């Protein structure tokens, strides 16, 4: 991680002012109220407004619907959107961004080329159809079945935690097309239109109040044109978006925080609220909490861990983000005590409710985007070069030709 100062030009400072003015205009109180009530991580008016500015795909060329921003300006945009609490599950660095590279590479150009501008403008959005109700983080164990029928495929099964499906047009769906092959080799990826007959989206709520979905596929027919990559080679197609989500191979330019920063933004809000509380709360003896050396130590420790978590790169940053979020939020709510147990009434000015929300949100961070156990295995294998761990009772998937001999033995 490069900690050197970044030189900002006059043009970039002017751009920051332009972003703030635009966000002040579109982030109205009703946007915050809807997000607080529904927890969807999305507001269509805001999303389309950002798209018209080219800020959904800010580094894309202008002719493709982007804004052709330099890396520093793109980071300024991201920071300002975070500070303004822009609902971001389908905006910058979102599922749509993760999926687009695979769509651009593998989707039939007849479908892909007209889609490009709609993606940049925010009219077309993608969600991730990975996790299944009984599959956990083992994506390669997918059971959603796709069977070819002439020039179409018939899809049946269900996916869970398909966040933002209710606001997207397509799902990047992993399916099993040959159950006789080893689990990583019998998979095929599709870009499935979510308005297809047989698709049912059912909302479910996380402990933090945010919405995700379970999506049912009942005899959903999809043209072969929507297949991404060769049949039974879906694991290779999936690897690009999956590695990007996991932070594998991400180049550190010194401008972007580690992947744990997405979680830790809520701890940052809680820290700000706690510091303000400590400076103003007066105890029975007339002293401030901020004057207590133990309170200073506890807050300082969370701040130090927060900075380390934000700065940690790659898969290690994903684990650090969850670990720091869980420990830090628990420490802050323990320090503040009953004063933190208030319901959030405003997203843009949460007050001490930010502490309580951070503690609730933290409970899901070890699982979002893949469990921390998966990421620790990625660190062991990809970063440290350790062999795959083989535990007693571990499932072994054998080719059909070897299954009978294994049973006979």
How is this fold's topology laid out?
Blueprint lengths: L9 H17 L2 H10 L5 H9 L18 H13 L11 H12 L2 H13 L4 E4 L15 E5 L2 E9 L9 E7 L10 E7 L5 E7 L5 E13 L3 E2 L5 H13 L14 H20 L12 H19 L2 H23 L16 H10 L9 H12 L16 H9 L1
Helix pairs in contact: 1-4, 5-6, 5-7, 8-9, 8-10, 8-11, 9-10, 10-11, 10-12
CATH class of the largest domain: Mainly Alpha
| Count of separate structural domains | 3
Give the CATH architecture of the largest domain.
Answer: Up-down Bundle
Count of individual helical segments = 13
Give the N-terminus to C-terminus distance in angstroms. Answer: 53 Å
**Biggest sheet, spatial arrangement of strands:** 1-4-5-8
Radius of gyration: 23 Å
CATH topology of the largest domain: Butyryl-CoA Dehydrogenase, subunit A, domain 3
Structural category? alpha+beta
The overall average pLDDT, rounded, is 88
How much strand content do the residues show?
5-15%
Structure notes:
The protein is of the alpha+beta class and 409 residues long. The protein has 3 domains: 10-92, Acyl-CoA dehydrogenase/oxidase, N-terminal domain (Butyryl-Coa Dehydrogenase, subunit A, domain 1); 126-242, Beta Barrel (Butyryl-CoA Dehydrogenase, subunit A, domain 2); 247-409, Butyryl-CoA Dehydrogenase, subunit A, domain 3. Helices cover 44% and strands 13% of the residues. The chain has a 4-stranded mixed sheet with strand order 1-4-5-8. A hairpin with a 5-residue loop joins β6 and β7. α8 runs parallel beside α10 and α10 packs antiparallel against α12. The longest helix has 23 residues, at 314-336. It starts with 9 loop residues before the first helix and ends with a helix.
